[in-house]
Structures are given as C-alpha cells and as structure tokens.
Amino acid sequence: MIRDTSAQDRPLDTQPARKRRLLVIGGCVGAALLLAVLGTPALQRAFSTGSSVSAARLSFATVERGPFVRDIAAEGKVVAAGSPTLYAPASGAVTLQVHAGDSVKKNQVLARIDSPDLTAKLAQERSNADAMQADAMRAEVESRSQRAAQQSTWDNASIDHKTAENDLARQQKAFEAGAVAGMQVDHAKDTLEKARIALANATAGLKLKEDSLRFDVQAKQLAHQRQLLLVKDLQRQLDSLAIKSPVDGQVGQLFVPEHASVAKDAQLLSVIDLSALEVQVQVAESFARELAIGMPGEISGNGQSWQGLVSAVSPEVVANEVAARLRFAGATPGQLRQNQRLSVRVLLDKRENVLTVRRGSFVDESGGAYAYVVRDGIAVKTPIRVGARSIDKVEILSGLNVGDEVVIAGGESLQGAERVALSR
Fold first, then answer.
1. Domain tally for the chain?
2. What is the mean pLDDT of residues 198-206?
3. CATH number for the domain including 255?
4. Is beta strand 261-262 parallel, antiparallel or unpaired with respect to 92-96?
5. Among 105, 120, 126, 401, which has the highest number of CB atoms less than 10 A from its own CB?
6. What is the rounded distance in angstroms from the CA atom of residue 114 to the CA atom of residue 315?
7. 16 found inside a domain
8. What element of type H or E holds 143?
9. 182 and 149 in one domain?
10. How far is CA 331 from CA 273, 306, 328, in A?
11. Which of 25-29, 195-199, 225-229 has the lowest mean pLDDT?
12. pLDDT tens, position by position, 323-362
C-alpha cells in the first residue's frame, strides 16, 4: 500500500487577505467622506479656524454712516429750586404759628421769638437817644446865646470905630480952621486906630465863636444820629424775631418743638418754594465731566415734554454719580408735584455724516482697540479706533467700513481668538 501525503497537508489561512481587502475598502470610504467634508463650506470654515461658536450666543450690528447724537438719558425727580432754611436771629423762646405741610404766602409770619434781653436793650438805647436829643437841643440854645453875646461885642466895637472916625473928621476940620491944636488931631487918630483894632478883633472873635458853636452843635447832633441808628438796628433785630416766609410755598420741616428755647442762629424750619421747580438727576461720573451749565435738555412725563436747561452740576461725586439739575426753559408746568418722577435727556453733542455702530459690550471688553467683523461666517478680529460714545452708539474713526457686520455683545465666548467660525 502506497502512503499518501495527507499527513503533511496544512489548511491555508485566508484571513490576512480579507483584512487587507477590508482596510482597502475602509480607506476608500474614508477618502470619499473626507472629500465630502471638504466640499461643505461650513465645515471648511471650521477646519480653517480651529474653533467654532454658535451665532445664537452673539449679538450683531451693522456699521452705518449718518447723524451722531451724544446725550444723557436718565430718570429724575422734581425738586424745589429753592428751599430756604430759617434761623433764629437771637436767643429766646420760640412760638410756632404753622405746622409742617401748611401752605404759606410771602412775608407771612411763621414763628415768633421772645427775647427779653433784646427788648430791654432797645428800651435802654431809646432812652439814651432821647437824652442825646435833649443835649443837642440844649447845645443849639447855648450856641444862639453865645453868638448873641459875641454879636453884641462886635456891634459895640463897630459903633466905637464909627465914633472915632467922626471925631477924627471933626478934629481935622477944627485944626484946619485953627480952632484946635495938632495934638488933638493926633489923639483922634490914635483913638480911631484903637477902635479899628477892636473892631477887627471883634469880627475875628465872632467868626471863631460861630465856628466853635457850630461844631459843638454838630457833634451833639451826630451823637444823637448815631444813637438813633443803634436804636433802629435794635428795632430791626426785634422785628426780625417775627420769622416771615421769604417765598410763596409750603412749610417743610420743623426743627424745633413749640415753645422751645433756642440759641442764636439755631435752625427753626424750612420753606419749600413750589413756584420754581427743577428736575434733579443722577449722572454717571464719566458723563458728568462733559456737563456744563446752560446745556439744552428735554424733560418728559405725563405724556408731555418740556424744554429744559442744565442749571447746576454738583462738584461732589457720590457712588460714582454726580447730581445735576435742570430748570424748565419756559414757565414751570402747574401740574407737577415735588418728588414726581420724570424722564430727562441732556444733549451733549450732535454731528452729521459720522461712521457709527450700535454700542455694545465689545467697546468695554476691548477698550475700543478691536472688534470682531463677520466675513463669510467667520468672525475676524480687526483692530479699530473709536471716538465719541453716546448712550446707544459709538463713533468709529478707523478699522471699519459702512455695511460691516460687527459682534457687539457676547464676544467673551470668542476668547480673543484671531478667527472664529460662527455656526448657525
């Protein structure tokens, strides 16, 4: 029996060839899928940028060219333009004649202060004024008496001088007629000279006496007038103890109770002037630097609007805000009430033909250094330069063109990448 080779035969392994065929087929399918992927624009952008963000998480705005208005919009409250506080002009006991919230008229007495010291001092100074008036009158009488005496002396000297002149004339005629000696003529001349000197002294004495008496009387009168001024001032102080309202309005706050004893210059009460109302607003410190008195504004509320002007800007910053006030450009509306809420807009600047885009968080996030511009579904980081900013817009100086679509909010999700694909 011839032996066959069945014991030496081994079955052939067909698995490696099958695996190779599967790998070839898988490679072909992968290549086809890759070609399909590369043929899709959105996926191409994703591969080209390396990251992708959903556009639903972002806000967009289009760059435009047109008017640019910078203004401040805020809510304000109606306040009284004037709210004077009244003080005690002297110490004493207070008697209030009104209550908080009462309507008052100008010059209406609101309170009275009883000051015994001031009343007594006024009476004393009035008595001194009466005494000084008597002294002045007595000085006038004495002046007339002394002037009369001095006038009498001058009259006698004048008569003596006239008598001496007549006697000299008679002696000269007698001497020329040979009736008297020349010695008598000389004696008459000496007598005339004495009379002339006496008259000159009497004239000078009369003038001096008149001046002296006039000055004395004037001094007494001036002292009396000075005392009268003191009495008048004390009377004014006493009258001021009746505290009167400086304006038409309403009693605000009472700072002292009834019949309280107060010191000089103590607060008594406040009066609110309701005839002149203003609107007070709180403005962010960044905008407050540009506010100036006289800037135009608009006040609106109750379905109406009124023109206004900035009347005051506080120099103090509180909680990063500054208080400002607007007064009505015309007559104060009658239907307004204190603390009523109104909307206010203040115009800071207005320009035409300016490149602008809607304001968003991108300005604060980048500091205005760059913005993401959407081109073919890709947000491209683009350097920009911004100018003035308003409530809703920002001025673009360079880096953007009209029609550019810009990411204005949600840019933090882009993480500062240079190019980011946007998925819809």
1. 4
2. 81
3. 2.40.50.100
4. antiparallel
5. 126
6. 40
7. no
8. helix 116-176
9. yes
10. 15, 10, 7
11. 25-29
12. 889 988 888 787 777 788 998 988 888 888 889 998 888 7
